[in-house]
Amino acid sequence: MKQIRIQGNNLLTGKISIGGAKNSAVALVPASLLSDDVVTIDNIPNISDIEALNEILQYLGAKVTRENNKMIIDSTNIVNKEIPEEVSKKLRASYYFMSALLGKYKHVEMYFPGGCSIGARPIDQTLKGFKALGAEVIEKDNKFIINAKELVGNTVKLDMPSVGATINTLLVAVKAKGKTTIENAAKEPEIVNVADFLNNMGAKVTGAGTSTITIEGVEKLGKCHIDVIPDRIEAGTYIVLGALIGKNLKIENIIPEHLENLLTKLKNMNADIEIGENYINISAKEELNPIDVQTLGYPGFPTDLQQPLVTLLTQCNGISNLEETIYENRFQNIPYLNEMGANIEINGKSIKINGPSKLVGKEVKATDLRAGACLILAGLKADGETVVTNVEHVLRGYENIIEKLTNVGAKINLEEV
Ligand code: EPU
User: Fold this and answer.
1) pLDDT over threshold 90, residue 116
2) Which of 292, 384, 370, 286 is nearest to 331 (CA)?
3) Are 248 and 239 in contact (CB under 8 A)?
4) pLDDT tens readout for residues 132-171
5) Is the distance from CB of 324 to CB of 298 less than 8 angstroms?
């Protein structure tokens, strides 16, 4: 087990450079299987979710070469075999192998994916996409056996703009016969990154980033290169940190348009922020206005940033209200924040944050990835020592977090217990 120990309340100053987006990279790596040639993915983040996917790739027989942040994948000799349940359970994105293998071989057997325990997270919309394109799905003891005589393009109208179902449908449709239209598609920048990757291989995808995506199936996909886009959630987390306890903290290598909703909220709070072309400079301020926030799919306020943001809301002068509309169980960080001195009431899907509160160091637990980020931010602001346990969750999604924070003056250590 790993834990993080923090001596809090030091002003953080300097630069933090943002890595490649976790939620793009975890789709690009499985999608590479669709190519009949070698593909190169650059700006891969150094996170444990990528190691888990790399393990699956190698298990299937792909040749993977790593050079710094580059991953060169040759899957010309892979074998379409069942991925063991304990491996697919490690992360949500394992189900992108389900669609990539189905798209390539018209047959796949796989277990229900894992991922943070933040809600029910069913995969009915992914299965709806598979079925619309001609696949038959048999579900048995947590396992899916999926077969298609032929994959044929169709119109798939998603019940909600699910990121996973949009990408999974896309991965099956690129080699299906004829035209597929995904309606009510998710619009996240990570989906555009995946569509660009597939188009670089020779696919014909248009409309990614809007709610209607059209795919003309092609027979073969080839050699290509892609850069993973900067991680807007990692960037947003450190921007929030800057507003909490930064002094000219520069967050660089970002795409500010991908963070527009967070930046608007920070302006409403009257935060001290300078927005550059590919960076943001931010400093903490005594007087911050409270705000109201509702999480929504992109371009709305991202659910993945609401937990880190709550730490900052504990420092605003007055009552902030936050509604989580995407997941049913994404407030597991709140009792721990309250133990650290926050004053937050949970009421179903909403929380009311009464600020400002003085935070003090405590031992707290990272119940999931972004809850862990929230508590690390709280520890960096708090007086005294904070220990965040179960930080394996955090290492799944924040690359080199200890080094990045140490470099800007944080007193933070990773411990094995
Ligand atoms: N949903 C269904 N049925 C489905 C699919 C989704 O009911 O078949 C529901 C989910 O239960 C949820 C909502 O629709 O309430 C949105 O789910 P979505 O499918 O969009 O989420 P996801 O693809 O499972 C990805 C990210 C999450 C991020 C969400 C929303 C990956 C690997 N994960 O999850 O990232 O919160 O999109 O943006 O891309 C994180 O990074 O901390 C994280 C949880």
Assistant:
1) no
2) 370
3) no
4) 999 999 999 889 999 999 999 999 999 999 999 999 999 9
5) no
What would the pLDDT profile of 333-371 be if each residue is shown by its tens digit?
A: 999 999 999 999 999 999 999 999 999 999 999 999 999
Maximum CA pair distance of the chain? Answer: 64
Ligand 1: atom nearest CA of 119 is: 11
DSSP characters over 93-154? GGHHHHHHHHHHHSEEEEEPP----SS----HHHHHHHHHTT-EEEEETTEEEEE-S--B--
Ligand 1 midpoint to CA 407 (Å): 32
pLDDT of residue 120: 84
Nearest CA to ligand 1 atom 10: 121
Mean pLDDT confidence for 175-200: 98
Terminal-to-terminal C-alpha distance of the chain: 5
Q: Look-up: residue for tokens 């019940």?
A: 159
Please name the residue whose Cα sits nearest to atom 33 of ligand 1: 23
User: Taking CB atoms and a 6 Å cutoff, what residues make up the pocket around ligand 1?
Assistant: 22-23, 26, 92-93, 116, 119-126, 160, 162-165, 186, 303-304, 326-327, 369-370, 397
Among protein residues, the one whose CA lies closest to atom 22 of ligand 1:
164
Q: How far, in Å, are 16, 265, 301 from residue 167 at the CA level?
A: 30, 29, 20
pLDDT in tens, 243-275: 999 999 999 999 999 999 999 999 999 999 999
Work out which ligand 1 atom sits closest to the CA atom of 160: 14
Tell me the whole-structure pTM to 2 decimals. 0.98
Distance 11 CA to ligand 1 centre (A): 34
Active site residue 116: yes
